[in-house]
Amino acid sequence: MATEVRTPRTGSAHRGSFSSRKVFILAAIGSAVGLGNIWRFPYVAYENGGGAFILPYLVALLTAGLPFLLLDYALGHRNRGSAPLSFARTHRRTEWIGWWQVGICFVIAVYYAAVIAWAVRYTGFSVSKAWGDAPDEFLFGTFLQAGDPGVSLDVVPGVLVPLAVVWLAVLVVMSLGVQKGIGATAVVFIPVLILAFGALVVRALFLPGAGIGLDALFRPDWAALTQTSVWAAAFGQIFFSLSVGFGIMITYSSYVGRRTDMTGSGLVVGFANSGFELLAGIGVFAALGFMAQAQGVAVDEVASDGLGLAFVAFPAIINEAPAGALIGVLFFGSLVFAGVTSLVSVIEVVISAVRDKFEMTRLGATLTVVLPSAVVSLVFFSTTSGVYVLDIVDHFINRYGILLVAVVSMVAVAWFARALGPLAAHLNRTGSVPLGRWWTVLIAAVTPAALTVVLVRELVADLASPYEGYPAWMLGLFGWGIAAVVLALAGAAMLVRWRASTSLTPPDDDPAEHTAEVAR
Amino acid sequence: MTSGAIVMMLFAMLVLWGGLGLAVWNLVRRSKAPEEKYRRDL
Q1: 3-state secondary structure of A148
Q2: What is the pLDDT at residue A124?
Q3: Which pLDDT tens digit goes with each residue over A442-479?
Q4: Predicted structure pTM score
Q5: CB pair distance less than 8 Å for B38 and A20
Q6: H/E/C letters for each residue in A448-498?
Q7: Per the structure, how many domains does chain A have?
Q8: Looking at CA atoms only, how far is residue B32 from chain A in angstroms?
Q9: Closest residue to A13, CB basis, from B19, B33, B42
Q10: Which domain holds residue A256?
Q11: Domain holding A95: CATH number?
């Protein structure tokens, strides 16, 4: 399977690397901690048993999230390659799974950048409370200028300009490389994010009514634990939150030194991600409690998630709260910082794959990937129909992209490539947490089974009724269509041959790589 | 806040933030071995 010719250019030193374990951990946390931690977890917990939700959430973290994270680490760290190269080195016929992940990351990047651009604008809007007394009308009318669902090429300058700025920033960061770009961004942004969000939480906790919100979030509904939907929500939340299963952690771990303790690092990343989610839940529901008390309504009347929480509920809170402008800057600034570190991780999956496949320079691969991504992003998401396209693409690529490829990749690695043994052995060589038979069972059976349940539930819901009532042609084109095209292109990408100098043998099994590693 | 909510909030803090603390402690404890040399991003 493997080509025998090999040059020093294919060595890991030429792919780029993080300068230390700390930088890798910060970059991985930066990838995992994203918009979903802030605007998804609090509402999911609230809707699914409140305080009781923490139990299925912990079970999901320990039996699915962390084991899957370690699988990604093992694939990237052992194979020293991007997602397609790592899968190809695991088993030649699984390369297409890596390209599937690359395609998914491309799609996510083009719309994720748009949400960051909105957050950039809202950080500025917070100072003057530009949304006035009707944040929802401001969001969809004045700011996004959204009409009826459909496709429009009418550009919204208020979105176009910040979106172009976001892509310019991404271009600069990615051009600087793994350490000076991605690593340095994480080293600066993650501490700033924690400080900013920590300050927001402290401010929110001192608002009148904060206790009402916290009570709504943490009051346990033990009966909820008997419902399948609650357990599915816990596994779904852990899965979507950790950035596992779509190539990011494979790519990042390929940039880490060989003797790094990957299992110990994985525990830190996993618990840091969940720890931040808990912090977000406290901050968000303390603020919602204030809002409920100010309006004289129950918390369930103001609680929401996603775009509604960030761009409608929070502006309303900012209007009412003392020092509201400060809360706004901290909240939307946190969204920007969390979003940027996640966006660079997503786009790095694509850049790394292009570099490996075509042996391009860092700058060449960055320009090849970022410029088309920016054009697609600007064309589709800076227009008056951008919000609808974004909503559909996000919904479908998360379920029939990320979730599906996660299940497929675990089954393929465990049952087709039968690689779990070597992968566990690789991590155990330097890891502080030994992976035993339990890890194999979780990856081969428990985690894919749990995620399949989540996937089937989502599929049944989407087949039962059109998502959010969008026209069938929009769901077909931007939902099912894009998810299918990504999969088809993944198969096509596999047909492109690797360069002769790229070895498809795992470096662990390659004596030449061992010699080079020792020399380094 | 009700007592049940307080207990569950403290439990969540203890498990998730305590788990993070333990994970960091485990990593630091194990990192007594010499760090790898820096490899530059070329």
Answers
A1: coil
A2: 95
A3: 999 999 999 999 899 999 999 999 998 999 999 999 99
A4: 0.91
A5: yes
A6: HHHHHHHHHHHHHHHHHCCHHHCCHHHHHHHHHHHHHHHHHHHHHHHHCCC
A7: 1
A8: 12
A9: B42
A10: 21-519
A11: 1.20.1740.10
